[in-house]
Design goal:
Layout: H1 2-29, H2 33-41, H3 45-73, H4 80-94, H5 105-114, H6 118-147, H7 155-178, H8 180-194, H9 196-223, H10 230-245, H11 255-266, H12 271-304
Helix pairs in contact: 1-11, 1-12, 2-12, 3-4, 3-6, 3-9, 3-12, 4-5, 4-12, 5-6, 6-7, 6-8, 6-9, 6-10, 7-8, 8-9, 9-10, 9-12, 10-11, 11-12
Length: 309
């Protein structure tokens, strides 16, 4: 597959641009790299190499469950092992693609493995993304308010954000109901919101995914001695994630490092701690790449043995 051929150079591109971003930050902040190296050398390897990956895998399991909920809407089925491995491969690819677009490969996997029409699969993916954006937006606004960042946000701001998302969803449903052409294209997308059991399941799994992801970021930062409350960590994760949605660099490289370091500096951490924190968060991207590659290898082994995957 072509995306596998591109994966290695993209990974090196992420590493190279990340190094340049950190170097630029160091030049402007006057970082003592010996101090940074000391922080990294004393990092909690159990947190970075065991706890963070384990929590990441739990998120991937939940995302596979969410994918199953959407496939059920179009009466398509994948064996559980296929479902999990293919979903995880796509998420691993998302770690090195702009705006995490690599996860869209699930649409192609659904077409090949379950015979799902590509248009319906893409519409379902759009539904998943809407749940991600809505959930993370609410969490980020709530976290900013709870942690007192920028003086906190008035409840009206959070209500306005939520109302805007509801308005977009309602407009989409109305368009699909009143336009036959739109109904064909948006039908699966609308059903992710209009089917109560599916909507509840997707909302619950999406919320759990982002809360656990916040815990992963907190573990990574804590492993290099940067301590933030869970609310502040979720605010950081949300702000950086939304910034990466408009960043065309693979894996959000550059934006992630600058966003994390800048946020930590505003929280009163030293430039050295901010740099170490940015590197710890970037390391999570390489963890995702490694886990994605491991799932791809497992997928190949199972296929060679004649199993469904």
């Amino acid at each position: 597959m072509r995306w596998r051929i591109a994966l290695k150079p993209m990974g090196w591109a992420v590493f190279a641009v990340a190094a340049l971003a950190i170097a630029a930050f160091a030049a402007t902040a006057g970082i003592d790299w010996r101090a940074v190296a000391g922080m990294l050398g004393a990092a909690d390897t159990v947190g970075l190499l065991a706890i963070a990956p384990a929590l990441t895998l739990s998120v991937w399991v939940l995302r596979a469950v969410r994918w199953k909920l959407t496939l059920d809407l179009i009466d398509r089925r994948l064996p559980p092992i296929d479902l999990y491995l293919l979903s995880s491969m796509a998420i691993g690819l998302a770690a090195v693609t702009p705006a995490q677009s690599g996860e869209l490969m699930k649409a192609e996997f659904a077409r090949r493995g379950a015979g799902a029409p590509i248009a319906e699969s893409v519409a379902l993916f759009a539904g998943e993304r809407l749940y991600d954006v809505a959930t993370l937006l609410v969490l980020t606004l709530a976290a900013v308010a709870m942690s007192g960042l920028a003086g906190g946000l008035p409840p009206a701001v959070m209500l306005a954000g939520g109302a805007g998302l509801v308005a977009v969803a309602a407009a989409t449903v109305m368009l699909a109901r009143n336009s036959p052409a739109a109904a064909n294209a948006l039908g699966p997308f609308v059903r992710t919101m209009s089917t109560p059991s599916v909507a509840a399941g997707m909302a619950a799994t999406t919320l759990a995914c982002w809360l656990i992801s916040g815990a992963v970021w907190r573990v990574a930062l804590g492993s290099v001695g940067v301590e933030l409350t869970l609310a502040a960590t979720i605010a950081l994760m949300g702000l950086v994630t939304f910034a990466n949605l408009v960043n065309l660099a693979p894996g959000g490289v550059g934006t992630t490092e600058a966003g994390v370091a800048g946020f930590l500096l505003l929280q009163g951490t030293s430039p050295e701690a901010a740099a170490a924190g940015a590197l710890a968060i970037r390391f999570l991207g390489f963890v995702a790449m490694a886990l994605g590659a491991a799932h791809w290898a497992a997928h190949r082994v199972i296929r060679r043995r004649g199993a469904p995957a």
